[in-house]
Amino acid sequence: xxxxxxxxxxxxxxxxxxxxxxxxxxxxxxxxxxxxxxxxxxxxxxxxxxxxxxxxxxxxxxxxxxxxxxxxxxxxxxxxxxxxxxxxxxxxxxxxxxxxxxxxxxxxxxxxxxxxxxxxxxxxxxxxxxxxxxxxxxxxxxxxxxxxxxxxxxxxxxxxxxxxxxxxxxxxxxxxxxxxxxxxxxxxxxxxxx
Length: 194
Prior knowledge:
Layout: H1 18-31, E1 35-39, H2 45-52, E2 59-64, H3 67-72, E3 102-106, E4 121-126, H4 132-145, E5 146-154, H5 162-174, E6 182-183, E7 190-193
Parallel strand pairs: 1-2, 1-4, 2-3, 4-5
Antiparallel strand pairs: 5-7, 6-7
Pfam families: Methyltransf_24
InterPro entries: SAM-dependent_MTases_sf
Organism: Candidatus Giovannonibacteria bacterium RIFCSPLOWO2_01_FULL_46_13
């Protein structure tokens, strides 16, 4: 059994479930990840818990749409609209001691320059746009950022988000790089250990 610390255990629409949060925290602890990347900050609840359960010297980078991108962003999945621009991104970790581990990045994951993070990330959590094309791009980005031994996790693999589910199913079936993707039973999360 892996003991974890949890902050903000109450789940709100747009958050991972409590069970998913525990799994993420356990994976961070178990892996000893030094560099963690999150695509999709939302309210920062997951980010805070990644930081809380990571090693003391860990670096956590979290990317979300900034004001400029929100103005330019026209292709928003209908279900995503209620989560975009409605909350102060990162508010759950802003005033916490764990914030020293967290770097908030702003940008559109389809256009963002990820080169400073190439082949250096130990664990990546993909929980941004739920649009099919974005899932394909974010999945390629996840491979670009990671290295042998890294873990990739995706969220929202379920019938509520058909773009996510379709993209991950197709990647698993048609792209050898993703053939070992596995669904975590009882959750809407999928993982790949490289």
